[in-house]
Design brief:
Blueprint lengths: L7 E5 L4 H9 L5 E5 L2 H7 L5 E4 L15 H8 L4 H10 L1 H11 L6 E4 L4 H11 L2 E4 L4 H11 L1
Parallel strand pairs: 1-2, 1-3, 3-4, 4-5
Helix pairs in contact: 3-4
Length: 149
Amino acid sequence: MYDAVVPRLLVIEDGNEYEEFATLFLADRFEVVAVHSAAEALEAAPGTDAMLIDLRFERARDEDLLGDAGEAAARLFAGDLERARRWLKEQQGTLILGALREAGHDQPAVFVHDFPPRRLANLARLYGRVGAVPTFDAAAIVRTLESLA
């Protein structure tokens, strides 16, 4: 599946649920490396083979979020800064993936989210090898990563 002897799975989230899940149910397939911000993800991405990404970063501090709330408020929300901050938190996983792709990291990436097919197709068009599974299902995550390899 991957070139590495023990492939490294980069888990990107604002809490610890994904890391706990991966450690319990994916550690027989991957070395699990967890990070909690875009800056940490960019630092840890080299040398990883795949990514498991949380979409929503609801517990993240505003200063740890990728993106400019003021710019998003002006562009998307008629100046409503609070709506823009919520949007940044709700979409942080895709924003982080975009930053990783811009930095040249093209590893397969999986979200645990039930995206509508059109949204998932748009993500794949924008960011390449991207998949999603609707629930925390280790076998489905592995199958999805393998299909993207």
